[in-house]
Amino acid sequence: MAAALTSVFAAVCAFCLLSLASAVDFNYPAVFNFGDSNSDTGDLVAAGIGEPLLPPNGQTYFSRPAGRFCDGRLIIDFLMDAMDMPLLNAYLDSIGAPIFHKGCNFAAAGSTILPATANSISPFSFGVQVAQFFKFKDRVLQLLAKGKKFKKYIPQADYFSRGLYMFDIGQNDLAGAFYYKTEDQVIASIPTILLEFENGLKKLYEQGARRFWIHNTGPLGCLAQNIAFFAKDPSKLDEIGCVSSHNQAAKLFNLQLHALCTKLRGVFADATITYIDVFSIKFNLIANYSLYGFENPITACCGYGGPPLNYDSRISCGQTKVLDGGSVTAKACDDTTEYVNWDGIHYTEAANHHVSSQILTGKFADPPFTDKMPFALKLKF
After folding, report:
1. For the segment 304-362, what is each residue's pLDDT rounded down to a tens digit?
2. Is residue 359 packed enough to be buried (19+ CB in 10 Å), middle (13-18) or exposed (0-12)?
3. Do 153 and 99 form a contact (C-beta atoms < 8 A)?
4. CB of 152 within 8 A of CB of 101?
């Protein structure tokens, strides 16, 4: 009965979305993405920083590790597919003759909005990613000036003004700060973080960017990594088992990010700025996981330690290490579609698909989808 109802619901949603799609014409020639591991398609791995991604990462879709901290595709992958565009190549991935004709991905796992410090996982902060984009653009224009030889590999000159600029970053600024700051101090740092973000957006605007697509940050307190470290005292948890302080900080960050987007619409008079409430989508998924066909909202699919979290900070997904006197391996669960969380920090492909499908309804966007919004709303159930 449940399966039948799910099928009916999916069919109705697909019909509604396709009806919406037929009423509008979305056509973006390229996408330029900036962010962290939520949308990194191989940048950090290509840079050779940190430990390598091992199987079972990538197993669900790519059948191998594919630069993504996931068993398969990320939200950015599903959104690219919805636009009938190829998956974005990472800026630093030079192996295999990557094609950047439809855009480029500058996102790198562990990245922050604020400049990196000596303790940062990634040196590719938002400012660095913006600088990389400018170098990318300059090099593209140089190659285009040499003739048509490189045309099929790189964006056309007008793609930089007509393209979509996507952003999903800020999670690590908050999550990392909790390890050495109080909740009040983390919250007090939000304006500084967003000022850095605003400066980066202004630089992109000055270089011709006009279409901005900005994700807010998710419920950090619902990640097994944060629960394991910050909720040894159960009183720190909310009613669905998430760390209250982290989610409160995320909400306040998102409130101020939303206000910034509203302000910039007045500053960037000829630009479109779309704010996406990813937090609400993800929190609803975790709080009501069974309604969406999941069985485990917080437990990591790929990890070590068993329930309730199956997460141990000493060992990452796919690794084999000697812990507590014995050799152990962080293995994947049998069915990734039953899990929201992949490795204690990132989401499974199944969860990413759900989040993407909710984004594409337009209900979580400000402004809601209109004839000026970017995505052809085609959802593949």
Report:
1. 999 999 999 999 999 999 999 999 999 999 999 999 999 999 999 999 999 999 999 99
2. buried
3. yes
4. yes
| The pair of three-digit structure tokens given for residue 328, joined into one six-digit string | 């152990």
Question: What is each CA distance from 61 to 20, 77, 91, 110, 332, in whole angstroms?
Answer: 28, 11, 21, 23, 15
Answer whether 224's CB lies under 8 Å from 295's CB. no
Identity of residue 23 = A
C-alpha span between 210 and 268 (Å, rounded): 8
C-alpha closest to that of 198 among 274, 264, 251: 264
Nearest Cα to Cα of residue 196 among 119, 115, 272: 115
Q: What is the CA radius of gyration of the chain?
A: 20
CA distance 37 to 70: 9
Q: How far apart are CA 138 and CA 242, in angstroms?
A: 45
What DSSP state is assigned to residue 299?
E
Report how far Cα 293 is from the mean position of its chain's Cα atoms: 22
pLDDT of residue 377 exceeding 60: no
SS3 state at 164: strand
Q: Position of tokens 């957006």? A: 201
Q: Which of 107, 83, 217 is nearest to 163 (CA)?
A: 83
279 Cβ contact list (under 8 Å, min separation 6): 216, 217, 218, 219, 250, 251, 254
Active site residues: 37, 343, 346
**Whether the bond into 367 is cis, omega within 30 of 0:** yes
C-alpha 232/C-alpha 128 separation (Å) is 36
Q: Report the largest interatomic distance among the alpha carbons of the chain, rounded to a whole angstrom.
A: 65
Separation of alpha carbons 344 and 301, rounded Å? 8
Instruction: Please give the structure tokens belonging to residue 12.
Output: 């109705």
What's the rounded mean pLDDT across residues 36-41?
A: 98
Question: What is the pLDDT averaged over residues 163-186?
Answer: 98
Q: Which spans in the chain are helix H?
A: 2-23, 43-47, 75-82, 126-144, 159-162, 171-177, 183-188, 190-206, 224-230, 244-267, 278-287, 349-359
What residues contact residue 34 under an 8 Å CB cut-off, 6+ apart?
106, 107, 126, 129, 130, 133, 165, 166, 167, 168, 169, 200
Q: Map residue 48 onto helix, strand or coil.
A: coil
> Which residue spans within 114-246 are E strands per DSSP?
164-168, 211-215
DSSP 322: E
Amino acid letter for position 34: F
Best CA proximity match to 30, nearest among 103, 94, 136: 103
